[in-house]
Amino acid sequence: MNALAETRGVTRRFGTFTAVDSVSLAVEGGETVGLLGANGAGKTTLIRLLLGLLPPTSGEALLFGSAPSVRSRRRVGYVPQTLGLYDDMTVKENWDFTSRAFGLQRMPLPEDLGEIRNDLVGTLSLGTQRQVAFAVAMSHKPELLVLDEPTSGVAPLSRARLWQDIHAGAEAGAGVLVTTHNMEEAEQCDRLVVMADGQMMVGGTAADVIGSRTVAEVRSKDWRRTFELLDNSGLVIQAHGDVLRVPASKNVIDEALASEGVEVSTALVRANLEEAFVMIISEKSAT
Length: 287
Hints:
Number of domains: 2
Number of strands: 13
Low-confidence stretches: none
CATH class of the largest domain: Alpha Beta
Shape: globular
Strand content: 25-35%
């Protein structure tokens, strides 16, 4: 199957700073690809390269098999972090403007936006603005959805509805590329790409990203004291009730607790996606 969007060893530099470094990525119809990375990892720059909003320093970006253009971008629904809406226009005016830009005539406003049709976008909550931006991006039934942190600042119920719409678009044959910091959302993607410092670190399913990585489950009668000691040692800890999960070896944990007389039991277990993500980023930082 031909990719709807693809980068081939694409690199983008700003002066001496390399924002994206030799990244190859493809999004096909009917799949949802999640782009993961900390702030500054290069996710947004990669999206802008993919859409032709930035020229690459080297490498190639393709949209529907050709160099990105105004024509090919008409086949894309794009929600940037800035949402792409006009604050001083009403919801209906934003909708009508986008419809005309895509050559659509008299597209009816979705029913769930009816009550706010005459509200200025700038007066709406961030969650409602994102709802409007998503509806606008979907208005022309795009073949490719590109969503940059679409649920940031959105309440849980609205977030769930947005993901229902994302899945519906993919099930209808659209390709989806979405950036997110939410690991629960990431697990809803068919494939994941993890970026750090502009580079692609790992790609594949959530299981592929986790790979053989493990964490230590630490149990103690005084788990609060244990948490404090491990935290003071600079270790990353997740507390699940009175069980602590630490991405470190038993030897490292024993060393951190050795002089304090705290008795613990430690067992290695498979990491979850969030823990694997933290380890991947830490591995990159250590190089």
